[in-house]
Specification:
Length: 211
């Protein structure tokens, strides 16, 4: 079994130390960080998602896997983050109110930083007021919202309406993402764009911020 498969399996088992070990081993074998992320960590999390859905895993197992995922991601982050000098601009990212999922958002953050953007992560369970406040404060080129629950994704519309009411909707490009979100939904809430994964999120931000 190759290192990436061992990494994936360790993640599925929620073995934090093993995930760190195999992530480092893959790096030592000169595997690109992006490949380790996609074929090791995310591949493992996909299986965790299926097991959770099918009732084979419960919250404690998923939390442990999430912890292992973060441990691996921490080792990869410095490599995903490039050494670009000047900032390409500011992006604010947050997970909407009622939603605590942040693994995907952290990956989007790491990849955007890798592309030279300054990313301000305003956390999880973020209400409309806080989104409005951070747009005022940081004046980002792009605001990204993440949601992993069908019950919380609607809140993206609440945030966009709040920005509209405050008269600052047009000051920022808004992008949305997370497993239940799609292009059609993004349009329906009045967002400027949607991306299904972190690499495409980078392309999307580049496209939206191109002068
Ligand atoms: C890990 C996990 C958890 C962890 C979260 C830990 C953490 N720190 O994030 C914990 C255990 C806390 C958790 C809790 C719950 N969860 Co949960 N969870 C998951 C799981 C297994 C994986 C999510 C994940 O991290 N995926 C890996 C990342 C890399 O993928 P991603 O998040 O989709 O992100 C990528 C893209 O979507 C995109 N992206 C993400 N954000 C953004 C933002 C922008 C702007 C852009 C452009 C792109 C983008 O780029 C990312 C990278 O490529 C999913 C299953 C699944 N298949 O998604 C369930 C899942 C999301 N959870 C679910 C549920 C039901 C819950 C709970 C309600 C369970 C409960 N009974 O309490 C709670 C809710 C807690 C809350 N209030 O939020 C359901 C949701 C069902 C639904 N239709 O709404 C899912 C789908 C599982 C299932 N099939 O039943 N969960």
């Amino acid at each position: 079994m190759g290192t990436l498969e061992k990494l994936r399996d360790a993640l599925i088992e929620g073995k934090v130390e093993e995930v760190k070990h195999y992530t480092q081993q893959a790096l030592d074998e000169n595997t690109p960080a992006k490949t380790i992320l996609d074929q090791g960590l995310i591949a493992g999390m996909d299986v965790v998602g299926v097991r959770f859905k099918e009732g084979e895993y419960f919250l404690p197992e998923v939390l442990l896997c999430a912890k292992a995922m973060h441990a691996g991601l921490d080792l990869l982050k410095p490599l995903l983050v490039g050494e670009s000098g000047q900032s390409a601009g500011t992006v604010v990212l947050g997970t909407v109110k009622g939603d605590l999922h942040d693994i995907g958002k952290r990956i989007v953050k790491a990849m955007l930083e890798g592309a030279g953007y300054e990313v301000i992560d305003i956390g999880v369970d973020v209400d409309a007021e806080k989104f409005v406040e951070s747009v005022r404060k940081h004046k980002p080129l792009v605001l990204g919202m993440s949601a992993l629950l069908t019950t919380t994704m609607r809140y993206m519309k609440t945030v966009i309406d709040a920005l509209q009411n405050e008269g600052i909707r047009d000051k920022v490009k808004i992008i949305v993402g997370g497993a239940p979100v799609n292009e059609e939904f993004a349009k329906s809430v009045g967002a400027d764009g949607y991306a299904p994964n972190a690499s495409e999120a980078v392309d999307l931000v580049k496209r939206l911020t191109a002068a």
